Amino acid sequence: MTTDISTFTDEATVRTLLAAAGIPATEDEILKFTEDYPRLRGMVDLLHAVPEARYEAPGLLFDPTPTFAEWG
Amino acid sequence: MTDVPLSITEAAAAMRAGDLTSTELTAAVLARADAHDGALGTYLARFDEQALAAAALADSELADGIDRGPLQGIPLGIKDIIAAAEGPTTANSLVLDREWGAGKDAPVVARLRSAGAVITGKVTTMEFACGAPDPAKPFPLPRNPWDTDTWPGGSSSGTGSGVAAGFFLGGLGTDTGGSIRLPSAFCGITGLMPTFGRVPKSGCAPLGYSLDHIGPMARTAEDCASMLQVLAGYHASDPDCADLPVPDYSTGLVPGSLEGKRIGVDRVHHFPEGADPAVAPSFDAAVSVLEGLGASVVEVVLPYYDEMLAADMVTMGGEALAYHLPDMRTRWEDFFLGTRRMVAQGALLSGADFVQAQRVRRVALRALGSLFETVDMVAVPTASTGATHYDDMAGGELDVGKVFGLIHTPYWDSVGNPALVMPMGFTAEGLPLSLQLAGRHFDEVTLLGAGYGYQQATDWHRRVPAMVADAVAA
Fold it and tell me: Which residues in chain A are closer than 8 Å to B369, comparing Cβ atoms?
């Protein structure tokens, strides 16, 4: 049996995710993150909706033989 | 007071003609900062003593026939997220460990020094290159020399205002979503975001590991070419640094540099509602100049435009939060309000969201590669607005929707192509407007050549703010 995710509010989602990350945002900031969440989620969902990306590899590559060097 | 030449190229010529010394030049720009920086908030730290010593060395070497190139003896400012040996790096923040990079030069700063440049100091940035100015924090509020009630743009705010005001003749900025190009646009100067990996970014506090670019900001495309010549090249300390030969960027700076060049203009994504009415006619006039110089112009549509804006935001969200999370958990109130908003939204994204952004970046690169088989560069406005008024930044936060909907920079960070921005006119209020040219990966020669040609035919880049106009040898 699946969960009815439509019952989760944006505020609950934002509070949960910030708390899970250990970020002590103020109530005012949580409100602003909540107001902005639909826009943020919309942008992310745009990426998940690109059909040409279905079988594409990520642009970031793992190099198992890196060069280690310091700067300065 | 010594008149300050407008550009690196002009100052270099004056020094070699015996009309100016680096010591005179450096003293003059420091005096100008003494007179005007109280109103602009450009500098976080000045290195007057070390700068004058470097200037004296540059003079004696030139007198002895040691010529290190056009940057020798030239005063340059460094964005204060990049390490320089003279003093600690702050990232414009209470949070950055002052021991990070202490006493060391980032590779880009070391290269400038080897070229004989004079480092005058560290300059204002948005906190960690992403947090809007916060009046509640103990850092100068950066102001635009064209109108001090406006923001110079960011995140390389101090580099933009400092070049525009003549506190130095060039400087380093970084660009992750537009942070070289926006302050260059708002301050009426020229800025270059090189190809991702062209310039080593080690020794720079990161914002987005796969998005960050270090690049030059100066008066002209020719100046940017001189700086890039020194900055570019492989460095083993940066895993993203390209191990590719560095071309001679001056080969593009020739008459006829635009003959036969094919320029694509995207009018679909770059002329939004709410744009300043001066942008479209200024841009059309700029495009006419390019055509008059021999370029052909076609209409194009940048592929996956909205997706690349989303990819920049998602990628930056994940990469920035990974870096800042330990401090955000324990020092939340020490961060600027804008930094908290910008970085903490990374917690609202999943790992799968981040990876998807990287997959879509590759999709976009395929499509953009096809576009660049039909054009040599793309021309668009850098922004559809002049400098933002501080009334739109009340309480230390940008009105993100209002401001960033009018800025056309993040696309190129997501795909890593080089982009050059140059002044192209003014708003009715006298605020600079800017033309953006984007090119193929690692083809800065063509891009800088196009900029050189445009600036030989126009003089927008020679305009200076009224507050410093009296002391410029324009």
Answer: none
